[in-house]
Design goal:
This protein is of the alpha+beta class. Helices cover 39% and strands 13% of the residues. It is built from nine helices and eight strands. The strands form three sheets. Strands 5, 6, 7 and 8 form a four-stranded antiparallel beta sheet that branches. It has a two-stranded antiparallel sheet with strand order 1-2. Strands 3-4 form a two-stranded antiparallel sheet. A hairpin with a 2-residue loop joins β3 and β4. The radius of gyration is 19 Å and the shape is globular. The protein starts with a strand and ends in a 6-residue tail after the last helix.
């Protein structure tokens, strides 16, 4: 039996059920014959299959407008979807181009972590005085296989200001600091523990913060 009590709640999972599930990150939802050609960039046949899928996706009106009539980007979306074992539409809805580079929405990256089956849902612990420079957030989770508590690097308003994120024109750090603290703390946790989940792609918030800033 499995219950979830929100992002900040405690997640209880029956490990036997989890190991036998088709949760993302454990095993593919559809078992594929390794002898059959697979869509992708690894072979001429696979590349042709990928192009056909991309052409179809680029012509669909339900696909995000930023990808319509763009076969090249749709091929990349389809390839990423195959690698993540997710729907191409789901990937496209959460993949953006920021300053010429691909970027995930933070919600999508957090969702990958929460649903991969390897960890409990991320919970957030705030420290310091709200609104002050010492106000910060730490993202925590548990690894089911070992029972180890995973704690990401702390993120504070002081850090945001030192890195140049807070003072940027139009920065959401000034209007929604609590949300940005959560997003960045979760991103730090994921990037340090399981960077493969995001395939090395930064989040939209990271890209926007790091433009004309010190980066990290």
């Amino acid at each position: 039996m499995k219950t979830k009590e929100g992002i900040e709640g405690v997640v209880q999972v029956n490990l036997t059920e989890l190991q036998n599930s088709d949760a993302a990150g454990l095993k593919p939802a559809v078992k594929q014959d390794p002898c059959l050609p697979q869509a992708g960039f690894n072979s001429p046949v696979g590349f042709e299959m990928l192009q056909r899928a991309a052409k179809m996706l680029s012509s669909g009106t339900i696909f995000p407008e930023r990808f319509r009539n763009n076969i090249g980007d749709c091929a990349i979306v389809a390839d990423m979807a195959l690698r993540l074992n997710l729907s191409p539409l789901f990937v496209a809805q959460n993949l953006y181009v920021v300053y010429g580079s691909p970027a995930w929405s933070s919600k999508f990256l957090i969702g990958l972590w929460n649903s991969c089956g390897r960890y409990s849902a991320i919970r957030y612990e705030f420290v310091g005085t709200e609104g002050q420079d010492d106000w910060g957030c730490v993202a925590k989770s548990k690894e089911w296989a070992t029972g180890e508590e995973l704690v990401g690097p702390p993120v504070t308003l002081s850090l945001a200001k030192k890195e140049g994120w807070f003072e940027k024109r139009g920065s959401k750090w000034q209007t929604m600091p609590a949300l940005m603290l959560r997003y960045r703390a979760a991103t730090f946790l994921i990037n340090t523990v399981a960077p493969e989940l995001g395939m090395g792609v930064r989040t939209v918030e990271e890209m926007e913060d790091c433009s004309n800033a010190a980066g990290f």
